Amino acid sequence: MTGYDDGQPRMGFFTDTSVCIGCKACEVACKEWNGVPENPFAWTGESYDNTSSLGANTWRHVAFIESGGQSTASTVQSASSVQSEDEDFRWLMSSDVCKHCTTAACLDVCPTGALFKTEFETVVVQEDVCNGCGYCVPACPYGVIDRRESDGRAWKCTLCYDRLKVGEEPACAKACPTDSINFGTLEAMTAMAADRLDVVVAAGRAGAQLYGDGPSGGVDGAGSVFLLLDDPEVYGLPPDPIAGSKHLPSLWGAAAAAAVTLAGAVAAAFVGGRR
Amino acid sequence: MAEAHPVGFQWVVEAQRRGATVIHVDPRFTRTSALADVHVPIRAGSDIAFLGGIVNHILSNERDFREYVVAYTNAATILRDDFVDTEDLDGLFSGWDPDTRSYDISSWQYAGMAAGSAAGNREIATSAAETTGAGGAKLEHGDPPERDETLQHPRCVYQVLKRHFSRYTPEVVEQVCGVPPELFARVADALCDNSGRERTGAFCYAVGWTQHSVGVQYIRTASIIQLLLGNIGRPGGGIMALRGHASIQGSTDIPTLYDLLPGYIPMPHAQAYGDFSDYVRRNAAPTGFWGHMSAYLVSLLKAWWGDAATADNDFCFDYLPRISGDHSTYQTLQDMLDGKVNGYFLFGENPAVGSANGRMHRLAMAKLDWLVVRDLVEIESATFWKDSPEIDTGELRTADIGTEVFLLPAAAHTEKDGTFTQTQRLLQWHHKAVEPKGDCRSDLWFTYHLGRLLRERLAGSDDPRDRPLLDLTWDYPTEGPHDEPSADAVLREINGHDADGSLVSGFAELRDDGSTSCGCWIYSGCYADGVNQTARRKPGHQQSWVAPEWGWAWPANRRILYNRASADPDGEPWSARKRYVWWDAAQGRWTGEDVPDFPAATPPDYEPAADAVAERALSGREPFIMQADGRGWLYVPSGLVDGPLPTHYEPHESPVANPLYAQQANPARELVDHPANAYNPSAGQPGAQRFPYVVTTYRLTEHHTAGGMSRFQAHLAELQPEMFCEVSPQLAAECGLEHRGWATIITSRTAIEARVLVTQRIAPLRVQGRTVHQVGLPWHWGGRGLVTGDSANDLFGLALDPNVHIQEVKAASCDIRPGRRPRGPALRRLVESYVEQGADT
Asked: What's the whole-number mean pLDDT along residues B767-782?
């Protein structure tokens, strides 16, 4: 599919959010290894998330979601109410990353060929080819790829292509202390995700679910599988991502048919005009 | 733990994957709580009541591991008949002297004998220690303590403990801590259900327990629980002290503390001791492994002074500096303010941000003649003279400050060789990865060359006071363009050498005749067989589950201390599941998964002769070999200055009255009387209502302590770019605080400002029928770096634990109001208005 025939299996992530402690080591390791610039120093007040989203300068983003408990306006009535609030309260953490889609819209729309599929079936931007047209940015259904203000070019997670080339795991997975971020063959990652889901559900986390797994997960399958403890929307992830580019062939087909029809009509008009 | 020790927390996650129940007790719902099975929100400063409730739960329901308790602890030991408990003296133990604010601890002793503390007569230089620790609780050994193994004697430790903790009912826990009885029961049951023959449980703590005016007793309470449940000396048990930085454990083993020599040998006192033999007689326990203290000390002196140290001159014992009292950080601070300190070295320490009452530190440093700051960046402690908050308020003027500041760039750990020692006493060697840039140098380089230059200056001196410096063995090989001393050579010196100059294999080889040298007896063996044992990196899957070939743990590469207790008195494992170290009768030796922490060939049925000394004086059934009586101490007859048992006292500053006693706070706590250290009134005192909220401090994962290693790093600074306070929605409503707005937090020391993070993660608690609100403050910020902010530590006064002089910054009282703080001189006026009104209203 990617044009490589050396037997290299598809590689990917499994991000197990059930053991994420929100330490952001992945964010820092990614930036250090890949030389990603810092963001403006801006405190958001959104729990402990001052990174806010994936972007040109953020290739790993840890989301912090405080949910449940009571509304902000009420006051404490009794000790037991404090306790019952706390039992319902959750602080979810999840490290988001590029999904390295099977059908990668960013790659499909790239006019320069800067985006390409590697032998690991990961999606990588070649920074020396990218001309900064930005077509890829709206194409991505997850809002991952982004243009960097300073140079105008598009940047995103490379799944540490340079490290994979020499047999090393990506920096984020290497730095993750609790094995929330795992790296390996996509087959192994998918199997690991399924096993963990069984364990987590058996432990009583009813809302737990996989995201991006299997051929129908993500966009025709993803190179980055997640175990979430709630619905994807809770984490700011699209529940049903669609690659607009997937419909390009049929769109072009329709356009071609329309053109043929139009040409036929025009020809017919001329033919008719000779009468 | 996930917040401040994310790397260590991986093992908690691993334990949880294997079925462990993780309980997190914290005023806030943190990143640790997010993964824990149970989170217990607790009022900061009330942990002894919580833990005491667990002790009471264990004792009143007889959930203790009785065979372990009777055999291995001092539960059966009978106390003197003149000991009186706090329960009968309204919060004081017997021996209290209100004039000196200290205890005479003699009534706390065992009946019929006086047991010394494990580390000898530590030079605890409170007024109490001047009369007891330093001056001379005599060690009278030889007679075994009186015991009642039925635990029925009314003065046996077990019964004393039971009476003492009987008031710590679930209802009292609720009244003091704000923890509902159902939640408390869940914790107590989980602990008891996971202890005993088949199971073990562990405690992990950090400065949330230690930084209190009664901090040592917090840990003591956990020790009582773990001994009652049989969780000491066994796999999966223990009490893990999580350190604040890499190698803080190492900096107590080979100490930066004023009252210790390497290996926990007490620093000699100016008044208390005459000569070497007098010192050893008073400090070395005749029983247990401290019985060999003279060998450890002589070997240390030989390592330092080499050939100059001879039997004729007491091995240069008189070269050792003497302490004359408390010389801890905060005492030094006061002396600095009084103009008694001329110069000050800061090695990777930023007291202008990192120490309680930062303003007091900055005012004090302005009185120095010189200050040397060795750090990675230009930290606040190096620039207080030009940009501290006191310059802004006008209290300090740059032109008036005579302090000469030397800022010397330091090499990072990646730029030098050396070891880290972590909480499990594991030494791990790190190799230099890159050369330090520019003028950056290692601390070893700085210290070595400073010593070299001083010695060169003094060469030829015949002044006797210069002899200790001139006679030092200061001969480390150096390498490279900057003459970097060899860290490897230092480690070899620490390991120790025998008379032939060969590396010794462990402390058992050390002698007190001057034939051996050793820089730190507990580290002896780290270079056994000429191999840097600390550099071993054999992967776990290539060795046993205890992984003895990863790094090296002191002492003698033991991974669990007192592991003789993992077997029953007859030497059999308590259970197959928890088997660890046991007696192999066929071989006539202790054996097992770990290095046995017991004389290897002493059988379980060994009984010492009347004249036996050191470890030979302990029977084959007494695992706690560093204790004079070989037992784990539920009750501490000697070694603490504020009580033989923990009991609940309120923090020095608390909006809550102590419901247990008229005695509000630890009576022996250390207070500092200085205008820059005014205290908030507590509950029951006039003006307490001016400071109605509890305030606590903590670290965030994204930053490192006082910020020198994180606020100056873009990739860390961006993750938490601004100082903030955490408050509950209820407190925000009560005070008119707006989420993402600003708040000013006020104490009697100063006022700081912070952005407001309103979150349910810091819940109000119900205590004694009223709501107690808590304000949470990370303490990483200061005036310099890529991200700046006010320092939380500026808010806190100096109220200290009397045992270890640590500051109480995990619980105090405060006020909070919306908006930013005043600028310039108006800041002091705001604070003074609180202090003045506080006294009146």
From this structure: 96
A130 shares a domain with A90? yes
**CATH superfamily entry for domain B41-241:** Dimethylsulfoxide Reductase, domain 2 (3.40.228.10)
C-alpha–C-alpha distance, residues B654 and B665, integer Å: 9
E strands, B255-379, where?
260-261, 265-266, 343-347, 370-375
Is-above-0.95 flag for pTM? no
B670-840 has CATH 3.40.50.150 classification: no
* All CATH 2.40.40.20 domain ranges in chain B, comma separated: 670-840
The arithmetic mean of pLDDT across residues B180-193, rounded, is: 97
pLDDT digits (tens, 9 = 90+) for B576-603: 999 999 999 999 999 999 999 999 999 9
Cα A178 to chain centroid distance, Å, stands at: 21
Put simply, whether A80 touches B (Cβ < 8 Å) is yes
In B, residues 7-26, which contact A (CB 8 Å cutoff)?
A: 7, 9-10, 13, 17
Task: Please list every residue in chain B whose beta carbon sits closer than 8 Å to the beta carbon of residue A92.
Answer: 34
Query: Is the pLDDT score of A76 beyond 80?
Result: no
Comparing A189-193, B222-226, B257-261, B713-717, the range with the smallest average pLDDT is B257-261
pLDDT digits (tens, 9 = 90+) for B48-86: 999 999 999 999 999 999 999 999 999 999 999 999 999
CATH 3.40.228.10 residue spans of chain B: 41-241
Q: What angle separates helix B170-177 from helix B181-193, to the nearest 10 degrees?
A: 120
CA distance, residue A250 to nearest chain B CA (Å): 44
CA distance A104 to chain B (A): 29
Whether A251 and A238 map to the same domain: the answer is no
Per-residue pLDDT, averaged over B750-777, amounts to 97
* Window 727-766 of B, Cβ < 8 Å to A: 729-730, 732-733, 739-740, 755-761, 763-766
Does A93 contact B at CB distance below 8 Å? yes
Instruction: Residue A261: give the domain boundaries.
Output: 247-275
B722 — contact with chain A (CB < 8 Å)?
Answer: yes
Is A71 inside a domain boundary? yes
Cα separation, B656 vs B53, in Å, equals 19
**Structural domains of chain A, count:** 2
Is residue A71 domain-shared with residue A92, that is, in the same domain?
yes
Of residues A273 and B573, which shows the higher confidence score?
Answer: B573
CATH number at residue A31: 3.30.70.20
Q: To 5 degrees, how large is the angle CA B295–CA B301–CA B304?
A: 140
Mean pLDDT of all residues in B469-491: 96
Cα A264 from chain centroid?
Answer: 45
Residue ranges of B 785-804 with Cβ closer than 8 A to chain A: 786-787
> Which residue among B13, B714, B730 sits closest to A19, beta carbon to beta carbon?
B13
Note whether B715 contacts A32, CB cutoff 8 Å: yes
Is there a contact between B167 and B85 (Cβ–Cβ < 8 Å)?
no
In sequence order, the β-bridge partners of residue A16 are A227
Taking CB atoms and an 8 Å limit, are B761 and A66 in contact across chains? yes
Nearest CA in chain A to B175: A79
A vs B: CB pairs below 8 A? 135
- DSSP codes joined into one string, B60-87: HTT-S-HHHHHHHBGGGBBBPTT---TT
Q: What is the ipTM metric for this complex?
A: 0.92
Query: Are A256 and A123 contained in the same domain?
Result: no
Q: Mark whether A232 and A255 lie in a shared domain.
A: no
Alpha-carbon distance B750 to B829, whole Å?
10
Q: Does a structural domain hold residue A130? A: yes
In a domain, A5, yes or no: no
Q: Chain B residues with CB inside 8 Å of A62's CB?
A: none
Examine the domain organization and report whether A79 and A209 are in the same domain. yes
- B740, pLDDT greater than 90: yes
Looking up tokens 């005993």, which residue turns up? B196
Which among A41, A52, A77, A92 is the top mutation candidate for probing chain B, defined by the most B β-carbons within 10 Å of its own β-carbon? A41
Domain annotation covers residue A3: no
Residues in B 23-62 with any Cβ partner in A closer than 8 A: 29, 31-35, 39, 41
CA–CA gap between residue B836 and residue A55 (Å, rounded): 53
